[in-house]
Structures are given as C-alpha cells and as structure tokens.
Design goal:
Layout: H1 28-38, H2 56-66
Helix pairs in contact: 1-2
Length: 75
C-alpha cells in the first residue's frame, strides 16, 4: 500500500547556493523541489559517499529547499 515517487536532481537545475545572491536569483526549481518533498509523507535520500561525506549536489539542493517558504521541513 505504498506509493513511491523517484526524483532526480537532474530535473531540478540549481546553481551553487549563495546567500548573498539569493534575493536576486532564487531558482524556480528550488520551489518546485520544496513542494515535491513537502507533499511526501516520508523522504528517503540514497546517495553514494563522496570523500567521506554526502554528495555536494544533494547538499546544495537541500540548502536551496531549506530557504523556500514552501519548505515543509521546518515544522
């Protein structure tokens, strides 16, 4: 009884997060990804290790999503 949605970061093109430039250029993809993640009951992120840590692209996208007013992770 579980429905799974598979998201690809390739579908959410975002520049490297820069808080100083955020007000001038917040990518539409950040809001779209925030809404997609917010609609889920559970979010599971699977990624290979990258130099002893997480993948930089995932960190970048989470940084953008965390700044969106649609962000459901701030509850």
């Amino acid at each position: 009884g579980v429905e799974v949605s598979d998201l690809s970061l390739a579908d959410y093109d975002m520049p490297i997060f820069n808080q100083d430039l955020e007000a001038e250029h917040t990518p539409e993809a950040a809001g779209a990804l925030a809404r997609a993640l917010g609609a889920a009951d559970i979010v599971f992120i699977a990624s290979p290790e990258y130099n002893g840590g997480g993948d930089p692209a995932i960190h970048n996208n989470i940084s953008w999503v965390g700044r969106q007013k649609h962000n459901q992770f701030k509850r």
